Amino acid sequence: MGETYNLIIVGAGMAGLCAAAEAAAQGAAVLVLEKEADFGGSSLLSGRYMAFAGTDLQHQEGINDESRFLVDDMLAVGEGKNETELVEAYGKRQLETYEWLVSKGVEFHKVQAVSGHSVPRGHTITPQQAITALYRAAAESGTVSFKTGASVKRLRKDEDGRVSQVIFEHAGKTETATAENGVLLTSGGFSRSEDLLQNFAPHLSGAIRIGGKGNVGDGIKLASEQGAWLRDFPYLKGTYGFHPSADGPRKSQALAFYKGAIIINKFAERFVNESISYKLIGSEALLQPEGITYQVWDQSIMDQGVPGDALYDFDKLLALGLIEKADTLEGLAEIMGVPAGSLKSTINEYNRDIQNGGDQKFGRSTLTHHFGTPAPIGNSPFYTMRTTVAMLATYAGVSVDPSAQVLNAFNEPIEGLYAAGEIAGGFHGAGYMTGSSLGKAAIFGRIAVQAALQKQTVL
Description:
The protein has 13 helices and 19 strands. 30% of the residues lie in helices and 21% in strands. It folds into 2 domains: 4-235 and 394-453, FAD/NAD(P)-binding domain (3-Layer(bba) Sandwich), CATH 3.50.50.60; 239-391, Succinate dehydrogenase/fumarate reductase flavoprotein, catalytic domain (Flavocytochrome C3, Chain A, domain 1, Alpha-Beta Complex). By secondary structure, it is an alpha/beta fold. The chain has helices at 14-25, 56-60, 67-77, 84-103, 127-139, 194-200, 218-225, 278-285, 299-302, 314-319, 329-336, 340-355, 436-453, and strands at residues 4-10, 30-34, 49-51, 111-112, 122-124, 144-148, 150-157, 163-170, 173-185, 208-209, 230-231, 239-242, 262-265, 293-298, 324-326, 382-391, 397-398, 405-407, 413-419. Strands 1, 2, 6, 7, 8, 9, 18 and 19 form an 8-stranded mixed beta sheet that branches. Strands 10, 12, 13, 14, 15 and 16 form a 6-stranded mixed beta sheet that branches. A 3-stranded antiparallel beta sheet has the order 3-5-4. Helix 1 runs parallel beside helix 13. Strand 7 and strand 8 form a beta hairpin. The two termini are 35 Å apart. Keywords: FAD, Flavoprotein, Oxidoreductase.
């Protein structure tokens, strides 16, 4: 009844390809099923950051960091709603996984200060390069088979109650394959499923939809049929920082607020502490009149742009006409269509507070989390970008243990079923820390394989 493998992996983004490369290194016979024509999924749309601590890149920049600091930051950003065991597993395996990725040919370019971190910890990759390197590491082994355009329809248990059969459609035919050691779901979230978003996150109806086109929650449904418990759905949030045109082919975004910009609504009023997680900012932005918000900054902040960076290449966005510029605040207000007097008053109040030691209105004292010091906005010319909230990734899903085994409602493992990446819930809690999504995909993709193949002690 179809072919038999040690492991079947459903989905070929960061988690699935890390799992495939890990399994290949152990000589396992693996089938990877990807329903889209190409590999990568939402990993290709990411902000390009992976959260690691104590790396060579940090040492080169004189940044003192350790796994325990990373874990503390994750728990703080998640407001204690994370599963501590999952976060600690991340901390225990993160540096090893960073070095493993480098050994597989993944290129890390630099370290940036990003949302939720107390020190610069955002390790920058080029997603396409990383995905290609991991695919090659798996494919060149000769033990891993890939099938694209393969849509998984059902999972089935064997007579011992173990998930072992995968029923999928490929090339117009229905096929069945068997996994002796386990089925690993790395199929992403549901940012493109209006049905699931309306059921689980109706408060995000105002967010544009830009996730990977295959992210419709089919993996969550497959796991749920086998008894999987679901986690973190009450904490679903959009991502703030995208230009409204990002629902088209260009996913343009800028996080100038983490360099010192302020965020205002259509009345030119601030409404949030700009240093908090862009997920939490997004929740506040959706509550603003007509959902209209802008980032506003000056030349001093503009000069901190990073050419080629997905989040901080301000000059590129200016050239594209997505960031707009004026010599005066009155001119900037006219461009935005906000009251000039209110804009000047808002900036004057903010500048006065910053110069006097702290933001009185929203308590901003850093640029992001515990890092950086805000400065007054007054060095012309001035800049703005209309900014909106996007549903890029869902960060909620099936319950898993630290070995990435899927759990039922009684916190018991479902034999033979594993999950890693965006499909897995319980990790992020109430907030999201930049770089932890790709980070957990890589770490738990490898952990799942090691647990399923039982070749070594996972933790």
